[in-house]
Design goal:
The protein contains 17 helices and two strands. By secondary structure, the protein is mainly alpha-helical.
């Protein structure tokens, strides 16, 4: 696999040389675009088949496993069954985080699957009010509720908040609570299936639509443009939401920073925010490399894209490695670190800034992509 990628890089490097050598008849402007289009097509096909499709199928499977575990727990609220349900939740949450950059404009986003599955943080007051209803609690009931009252964040609250003993006692004593957690788990599994079907070649076939949108990044409808915009949103999320907000660092430099707020970390009840953060970094890496196929890094070679004299794709991958090392090297949960030793997270926060600049500025510029959303801090 390594040598295959090296050979592809050599090939794409030769194509890039042809692109630069305008005097070579075989590499005139039309031929150069044909070469780039061929590499883009390989890129889009490999992203569709090696990244997008398997990630959605994996999440659908994990969501189904989570539903089965919640069925067992609500039937018998014991410690072993709770631990199984909690572990299944963690697996599903990690799988979901790897889909963060795939909430693409079109049927996927308009179907608001991502909002239904993971509107975070959960609104615990709304959840408790929903449990206290006199209505029949089932999936149809949950489907009518707002997104912050269900999804993976809602399940996290129901399965983790207060610790093992408290969760078991609440579930054992309240049939409405058992019905609610079961209905939310069923709804997550249903939405996971609908999302996968939207992408599936046997269903909505957004995989084919993704592959067919093979135009340069200047077109807002191109898959290159859509995926780079989503990558930029993930980079902003890692910086401003996953680290900046809990650390109390203002998004806008004109606003004052606040004291650290540990409760604003992702997964505050399960305390697996490090794992979820790492999963998003892995997702960005998968898009850059197409999991060993023709990735954005290969396409950048055809453009002779560089950053300070080094291939831009390699620079971005190295930046992801540095960020991953800073996060995975921490001991304990992000919640505990924010509360007890926030300075330990400042190097990781700095690395998110460099990642954001590389994606929003350098990657977007080389690919001709217009970033269609903005933040207020100049990517600082």
């Amino acid at each position: 696999m390594y040598f295959d990628r090296i050979n592809r890089r050599v090939l794409y490097g030769l194509i890039a040389c042809c692109i630069m050598a305008g005097a070579v008849a075989a590499c005139d402007s039309e031929g150069s675009e044909d070469d780039r289009a061929a590499v883009r097509q390989a890129l889009l096909s490999d992203l569709a088949n090696s990244v997008i499709d398997p990630l959605h199928k994996a999440f659908e499977q994990d969501a189904a496993t989570l539903q089965r575990a919640v069925v067992a727990f609500t039937s018998d609220p014991s410690q072993p069954n709770l631990e199984t349900a909690q572990n299944a939740w963690v697996s599903a949450a990690v799988s979901w985080r790897k889909l963060a950059a795939l909430n693409l404009p079109g049927p996927v986003r308009s179907g608001i699957f991502h909002n239904r599955i993971n509107t975070w943080p959960a609104n615990v007051d709304f959840i408790e009010d929903a449990i206290a209803t006199t209505d029949t609690v089932n999936e149809a009931y949950v489907e009518r509720l707002g997104s912050s009252s269900r999804g993976l964040p809602g399940l996290e609250y129901l399965l983790f908040e207060g610790g093992t003993t408290a969760v078991i006692e609440r579930m054992s004593a309240d049939s409405q609570r058992r019905a609610y957690v079961l209905a939310v788990a069923q709804n997550v599994a249903s939405k996971a299936g609908e999302l996968t079907q939207t992408w599936s070649r046997d269903g909505g076939n957004q995989l084919a639509a993704f592959e067919l949108a093979n135009t340069e990044g200047r077109s807002l409808q191109s898959s290159i443009s859509r995926i780079v915009n989503e990558m930029a949103m993930v980079a902003e999320d890692l910086r401003h939401v996953k680290l900046g907000a809990p650390l109390g660092i203002a998004r806008n430099p004109d606003d004052p920073n606040t004291a650290p707020r540990p409760e604003r970390v992702e997964a505050p009840y399960a305390e697996v925010s490090v794992q979820l953060f790492s999963a998003e970094v892995d997702a960005l890496r998968a898009i850059i490399t197409a999991n060993g196929g023709t990735g954005l890094d290969d396409y950048l070679v055809t453009l002779d894209a560089e950053f300070e004299g080094s291939p831009l794709g390699e620079v971005i991958l190295a930046q992801l490695d540095r960020l991953e090392a800073e996060i995975s090297g921490q001991t304990g949960s992000l919640k505990a670190l924010v509360q007890d030793n926030p300075d330990a997270l400042m190097p990781a926060y700095a690395e998110t800034g460099q990642l954001l600049r590389l994606v929003k500025a350098d990657l977007a510029n080389w690919l001709g992509v217009s970033i269609t959303f903005s933040d207020n801090d100049g990517d600082s």
